[in-house]
Each structure stands twice: as structure tokens, then as C-alpha cells.
Amino acid sequence: MNFRGLGWDGVSLVLLSVFFVYFLWHSLAVVLYPVWLDESEGYMLNSAVQFLEGGILYSDVNLPGSLPNPYPPLFTVFSAFLMLLRGKGLLAGRLLSLFASLLCGFLLFRIMRLLRVGFVRALVFSLLFYTSRFIFLWSPLFRVDMLALFFSLCGIYFVLWRGGGLVSSVFFFVLAFYTKQSFIAAPLAVFLYCLLHNRRLGLKFFLIFLFSCMAVFILINQMTSGQFFLNIVSYNLNRFSWEVALLWLSFSLLLHLPLVLGSISGLVRGGVSVVSFYLILSLLSSFSVGKYGAYFNYFIEPFAVMIVVSSLGFANKGFQQVLLVVSCILFFSVSASLDYVVDMSDARVTGFDNLAGVMRGVGGDVLSEDPQLAISAGKKVAFHPQWFSELESAGLWNSSGITRACRNHEFSLVVLLEGDSKFKRFPELLKCVHSVYNKTSLVDVSGVKYGVYQ
Q1: Which positions ≥6 away from 392 have C-beta within 8 Å?
Q2: How far apart are the C-alpha atoms of 356 and 373, rounded to whole Å?
Q3: Cα separation of 12 and 439, whole Å?
């Protein structure tokens, strides 16, 4: 193939097309893998199953068997309805997330075209979206972020496409907020941009968005007897570390350094615009990664906006074109060489099935450190060590109740990770398990050992 005749955009397009095929192959492998690859998938699955079986989205965490649900309802509800077709497993939520991710790439392409980026250049940058480690690993997981990003990009697209018809974008911004409450950078960007050009229209847009969000909030809060507010606000006020936030921000920007440079150029060349406000506000929003328990998914939104702004910044100059190709190779190499913290082996699936079978064979409630094990065994998920440790530190929950249930032998079975159990955050509970229950077996799940106590 004559790469010289293709030009730098053509070379980038060939490289990115190859990687996109790899992205699809990897994503489908993840979607079809029946065991969690990010621990929070198990708790997201539990929320969807609880809604599907009993219509419960938010409940009092001080009631036995209740868990905090830190996210607004949309992703959970959509996943639950898909489970009617695909069963109570990870497949429904993973398919929803992957489909949203693919639509995000299409919307990025359309947004860049509206900003007068050339067809090939827009296609190159929309495919570049899938080479980031963040998108590569997160797209096929049972998590809320890709759907929230899709709704936010829909809102931005309608702002740019319809011009002054900003009100129509409010619908999608509200959907984004009620998928993940941290996705407010896009409507704020539109509001600030409008204030500079048409203050009356900006205030109208902001008031419609604000009142729409408030109306939905009041409705859901009333329907859940105040538990909606407690779950997504009060129970979400985890410890915050500026040091962690800056560390994550530095890592993320260095990982995508070519796009950072392209974004700076794009901000200079593009001037004041909706997308420039969006990029700055989404980067500020990503500082919430300093919250305890947060992860790199908080940088998915600013990365997507960087794709758009960078497409405006890469001119047809030699060194910038070379930088674009280097970006493709760099992102490809990083994403292809890093994977999830757990393996996707058949041995892990077999081990989980065996453990779930043991749990399924006992009557009554179980106390499992792994949420998906309990769900697979048809049991309720009784505990979330990470969230409850934060709630106890904040004085919103007390571990005495579950410790008392342990002492009264209310759990027919307890399954704990050996050596690195998260129950270490609750010394009295862990001491109770070891004193009241007998370890009957030690199950190896692809190198991870679980102790079974009865």
C-alpha cells in the first residue's frame, strides 16, 4: 500500500481502523464474559436485580439487607428492562454501555462535522476516541458512564445543530444528570456561552434545565420517602483528597499528552465556544476523582471533549500531522498492553460457578464479600464493605447491627477473601465470623482464595 499517497490523515485512519476492529473484538469478549471485571459491576447488577424483582431503587441503609445506591435511576432501570430479555446477569448492562459507547463515537464525528472539521479528519478523531485506555477498558463494563456521556453529547449536538433552539437540548442534559449526577459540565457550558452572547436565552435555558431537574428530583424523592436524596447526596459525600485528585489528573493528562497539546492549540484557534467551555468545565468536574473510591472513569467526559477540541487544533502542518500518527501508535500501545486487574480465564468462571453452587445449596441468608456470587446463587447481597465503611465514618450507619446478626448466626454461610478481606475495615465483624463460624473449605478461584464459613 502506498502510505505516502494516503497522507498523514490516511495513515492515521488505517492504523485506527485496525485498532477499532481490535476494540470491538475485545469489547465483545468482555460483554460475553459472565463474571465481573470491575468489582462495582456486581453492585450495579444487584441494584438492577433489586429493581426488577421488587421495584426497589433506594432504601434505608439501616434496614437489614439494604445497600446504598449512589447513582440516579436511569441506567439501573434501562438495564433491568433489558434483563427481561437477556436474564439476570451482566450481559444486559454491558450491552447497554457498549452500545452507548459506539453511539458516542458517532456523535463525536457529527459534532466535529458541525464544527466544519473535514470528513476524513473527523473520522480519524472519532476513531481515536476508542484508543484511549479509559474508553477501551470502560466501554463494555456494567457501569453508568458511557450512557451519561452519550446523553451529554446528544445535548451538545442539538445545541450546535439547532442553533438558537437550546431548549430541545435540555431533555438530553436532564437524562445525562439522571444517569450520573456529575455530568453537569455540558449544560453549564451552554449556559455560560449563552450569557456572553444572549443573556436572556441563557437564563431561559438555565431555568428550564434547573426546574426540570428539580421536578424530577422531587418526584423521585417523594416516591422513595426521601431515600433518593440520602443515597445520591448524603451517602455520596465520601472523603476527598486533593493529592489523589492531582495525581489522577496528572496521570491522565500525561497519558493523553498529544491530545492535551492539540486541545491547547484548538482552544487558541477556536476561540470562545460551547465546546471550549465544555472542555474547561469537564476538566474541573474531573477533580471529583479525589473522592474516596473514585477511578479513572471520571476522565472519560473531558477526554471525549478533548477529541473534539483537538480536531480543531491539528492543522495541516507537518509536525502536527506526525504528532497525530504518533498519538495513534501511543494510545494503541498503551491500551493494548493494559487490561483489567483480574483475568478473563475459564478457570475463574468455573471457580465462581462452584462457589455459587455451594451458596445455592444452603437455606437462609448468606454474607458474601463478592456481590455477584450472592446474585448467582439467588441470594440477597447483604453487605458492601467499602460504602459502609465510609458511611460509618460519617456517622450515617453503624456496624453493630450486622455484627449482632453474625453473633446470632443469622447467616447460613459466609464467604470471605482470604488474606485481603475488605471485612478488615470492620474488626468486630471479622472477629465474629472467625469465632462463631467454622471454616469448612478454601476455594481457589484462578489464584484468588475464598474461605467458606458455616
Answers
A1: 398, 399
A2: 5
A3: 57
Alpha carbon distance 277, 192 (integer Å): 8
Are 40 and 70 in contact, with CB atoms under 8 Å apart? Answer: no
Only one residue has cell 472519532, namely 126
- What is the spatial distance between Cα 313 and Cα 334, in angstroms, rounded to a whole number? 23
Q: What is the three-state SS of 133-200?
A: HHHHHHCCCCCCHHHHHHHHHHHHHHHHHHCCCCHHHHHHHHHHHCCCCCCCHHHHHHHHHHHHHCHH
Distance of CA 225 to the CA centre of its chain: 27
Cell numbers that stand for 95 in this block: 450491552
| Model confidence pLDDT, tens digit, residues 120-165 | 888 988 998 998 888 988 999 999 999 999 999 999 999 998 655 6
In 271-369, at which residue ranges do the beta strands (DSSP E only) sit? 365-368
φ, ψ dihedrals at 405, nearest 5°: -65, -35
C-alpha cell at 60: 434505608
**Residue type, position 277, single letter:** F
All 3 cell numbers of residue 1?
A: 500500500
pTM, entire model? 0.93
- 10, 62, 111, 348, 369 from 49: Cα distances, Å: 46, 20, 36, 23, 18
* Residue boundaries of the structural domains of the chain: 3-32+70-337, 346-453
